[in-house]
Amino acid sequence: MNRSLKRQARLPLVLLLVLISAGCATRVRLDTPATPASRMPVPQVPVAPPVAEPSSATEVYSVDLGSTQVKDMVELVPPQELEFLRSWVSAYSRLYEVAGNLMIRNVQSCPNNARRILGFTAKNRYSYTQRYSDAASAALGLGERLQVFEVISQGGAHSAGIRKGDILLEINGQPLPAGAEAEREAAILVGAETRGKEQVDVTLSRQDQEMSLTVPLTEACAFGIELGNSNAIASYSDGYRVMVTRGMLDFVQSDEELAFVIAGEFARNLSTKQDTRAMAAIIDRLRSIGSVTDMDAAVMALKPYSAEEDIKADQLALQMLARSRYKVLAYRDFLKRLSEQDAANQPGGYNWLHPQLARRLAAIEKSAISTGRR
After folding, report:
1. What phi, psi does 81 have (nearest 5°)?
2. Any alpha helices (H) in the chain, and if so which ranges?
3. Helix axes 79-105, 255-271, angle to 10 degrees
């Protein structure tokens, strides 16, 4: 069914369509468990007035990223903005696929954080900052309605036939919202419709054809996955979310090394006793594509992890890597190479947060030998 959509305000909001506890009143992503307000404050942003849509725009639907939904808009958006947004989306897609594999294969490690998830993310043109809302339409083909962006290959959505680019219309017969507030409103609706269920019916539009698919929910570690807009070689976790910076993504040489970084932060979410408010502030600061990358003030509140904390997290991360079929000792080689990077030694960088490298490497080697996970 072809549905004409009226462009509305340019308010960026981001979500992942994952089952969480319902009733969340703040702007959250659906794969993130409900978080105490004191840890993750979300400021209210005023909605800008509607902008009239050019009458000459040609609407085009595509299930492929990089297509244009409003062809005439491409000429109006600076090329550097189109390229930056495409680069951001490509980086996040890589991050989400590796994280999704770890989340699904390690449910036994996170019983208190396990949730049944839909197994895909969805975005609309307001999922990025106001600055990039036109670029989201021009470069990514995004409009008013939520559109599937990433699908976890091991999840129920993938097996049910959900595809990248599908436009989401209903869940269990309930219309999914569109427009600037779609993500926040959809978070509440999806939470309510999936609670206590093993599967849900999703109605979508694909190339102007409406269809309904039954999607089995997938048990997973329900941590929020964030891409950090910083060149720092770093990763962070606040008990609910995991962030990997663009600098770290550029540094890792394989998905195995990236899996180690993510698994380590999953493990810290599960094992650390530190006050995570400073980490939450860093993640809030860097999670937006339009965020500033200067962290001088924010890192002052951070504290490096002790060797005992890191070794405990490393041991759990090794188990996660083995269950997810990654080579465990890629972990060791990655840390040795990282120790030579000056950028990672800066305040807030990976080596600064995890200074006890020699003790960690010795413990990793011992653990890998004793368990046969080499």
Report:
1. -70, -40
2. 79-105, 133-140, 156-160, 182-194, 246-251, 255-271, 277-286, 296-299, 307-323, 330-338, 350-353, 357-371
3. 60
Domain limits, the chain = 15-43+56-99+108-220, 223-371
d(CA 287, CA 308) in angstroms, rounded, equals: 29
Q: Do the beta carbons of residue 114 and residue 222 sit within 8 Å? A: yes
Single out the residue of 263, 276, 254 nearest to residue 333, CA to CA: 254
Each residue's pLDDT tens digit, 184-232: 899 899 989 999 999 999 999 999 999 999 999 999 998 999 999 999 9
Q: Are strands 241-245 and 224-228 parallel, antiparallel or unpaired?
A: parallel
The structure tokens listed for 298 are 């924010």
For the domain covering 15-43+56-99+108-220, report its CATH number: 2.30.42.10
Predicted confidence (pLDDT) per residue in 228-267, tens digit: 999 999 999 999 999 999 999 999 999 999 999 999 999 9
Strand arrangement, sheet containing 235-237: 224-228, 241-245, 235-237
* 204-210-212-215 Cα dihedral, nearest 10 degrees: -30
The answer to whether the beta carbons of residues 241 and 223 sit under 8 Å apart is yes
